[in-house]
Amino acid sequence: MEKMPYQPELDSTIQTTHTATMPMSTPPREIVTSDWQASLPVLTGMQVVLRELRASDAASLFAMLTSEEVSRFISPPPTTIEGFERFIAWTLREREAGKYVCYAVTIKGYDTAIGIFQVRELEPCFSTAEWGFAIGSAFWGTGVFQESAELVMEFAFETLGVHRLEARAAVKNGRGNGALLKIGAVQEGLLRRSFLKNGEFVDQVLYAIIEDDWRDIRSDFNADVMFANVH
User: Which pLDDT does position 39 carry in this prediction?
Assistant: First the structure.
């Protein structure tokens, strides 16, 4: 989802109050609910906790996602902390409308947002959806992306009822393409001059994971874990 659905110019009238993000705090408790339109369930892995965005995440997201290496292949992120506050408020409204979800990625034991995962509806009832992600570069290569992606995929297929999950990555975005392939996404085609970045239209690769693919991937992973535990 390199082309972000959020449009800051259409959301400039929202007034928010900036709250500084604390570097450390107690991790949130797990929420057990199927009513994701009212509140996103917390997704917990071995090293990450994914939770709903909060206004207080604006400062850390501004620091993490506006660097050149992170923003190079995505739509320009908000340019101020206040802009991220407006973005966060927009994500909550879109979630309540049942069209979109956005998770903050945090490290277990720390409640600072270091990135986001987004899923948006392309067809009614999320039959087909598109997802995208952005992680602070300090956490690249640490396993944070893969574990977060697995949690989001499970949420998408099991809770949202997604049948087909699409992603787009600029051809020049080697890291993004590699990350999608690593989690089992299938390259389906080339979208020529489909993404405007810095005044230039660039080519994107279209990837997809369908529900059957994901269930096969999950079964293989579980089998590998069981084999490792036995041996």
Answer: 94
